[in-house]
Every structure is written in structure tokens, then in C-alpha cells.
Input
Amino acid sequence: QKEVEQNSGPLSVPEGAIASLNCTYSDRGSQSFFWYRQYSGKSPELIMFIYSNGDKEDGRFTAQLNKASQYVSLLIRDSQPSDSATYLCAVIPFSGGYNKLIFGAGTRLAVHP
Amino acid sequence: EPEVTQTPSHQVTQMGQEVILRCVPISNHLYFYWYRQILGQKVEFLVSFYNNEISEKSEIFDDQFSVERPDGSNFTLKIRSTKLEDSAMYFCASSEWAGESQPQHFGDGTRLSIL
Output
């Protein structure tokens, strides 16, 4: 069973702080890793993706991947109240193709002023 | 910025009826997907579609479900003989191609309510 695990939260951080969101996955052959943001009642919105070990930065966001530990994280610098949402980790499993995303249940982030 | 569009935004249907959910993927995208999210639960993969055929489907996607690309722009999900447990948000997504660096872009979803 291919699983993606996330702490459900809520993760509460003050405005301006760094929010750290974590995700582990069970399929060692997983190919690529995506972070989506989902506001309540809305669709997943892509933040960024990573497929090589190490860090990848995009504005206030940094994704970190450690395939040996089967761990991927998302750092949000200078957190804003508008960042308050559920953050979904999604993985492309090793299935011979790139045809589906397996989602975690998401971590709810609350940024308070 | 190009986006995936879905209609209707909300569909209410009696149990046992058939529904068709519609999607217009981003125009230069070749891969199309359907996902669903039951209230309070994970986003779940249903099916992927490429070159007018199903590439992969999940255990959820049984004979009750079908997909079609009826013309050059639309991509539809048909659910026959709907059940109460089919109530969920259904998201269409598309990607330019399928690969490790190809993100899937999601539409706003259709909320399906089965009465």
C-alpha cells in the first residue's frame, strides 16, 4: 500500500515566522513530490515540486527532499495570514508511468497576526 | 494564465441517476485526470487519460464510471446509477505531458451531492 503521511495539525505560527511542513512516503521508488495548497472548499493549487535530493527554492517557499529517509518538507518563510490553508503533499509513485498523484491528508496551517 | 475549467460547479442528483461532469483541460495539455475528495478526506486518484484511452485507473474507478473526450476540448466523467457515497468534490486536472517534472493543474471542481 503506497502511503503518504502528514501531520494533520493545525500547525500554528505567528506572522513573519517560518512554517515547516513535513511529509513521509512509503514507496521508496517514488518519482516526484509536489506541494499543493488547498483553501477550504477550493481546489488544490500547486506551490512547487521537487524530484532531486536537496533543496529547491521558489520565493518564500523551499522544498527539501531526502529520498534515503523518504522524507519531503516545505518551508514557508515570512509566513502571512493569507498562507493559512491546508498543505497537501503529493507523490508520483513508482508504477512504470507518471499517471497519478497519491495525496497525503494534508497539514492545516494557521498563521496568526 | 491558462486554467482548467469545470462545469457545473455544483450538481445535485437523485440516487440512481446518471451524471456527467465536464472539464476543459488547458489547451496544449495532453494528459487528463480525474480525482475526487470526499468531505474531510484525502484527494483520491480516479483515472488518467491520454491519446483517447485510459492510462491508469484506481480501484475506485469501477464499471460505474467512464471517461470520454467527446471533442477536441472537453473531457467528461460519467457516473452511472449514482450512490449516496458518490457525494464528493470531483476535480479534473491536466498536464502537458507525463513526467517527473510535470505538475498537474487542477480545476475548481464540481461538488456532487447525491440525495
User: Anything to note?
Assistant: Chain B touches chain A through 27 residues (CB under 8 Å). Chain B has no helices and eleven strands.
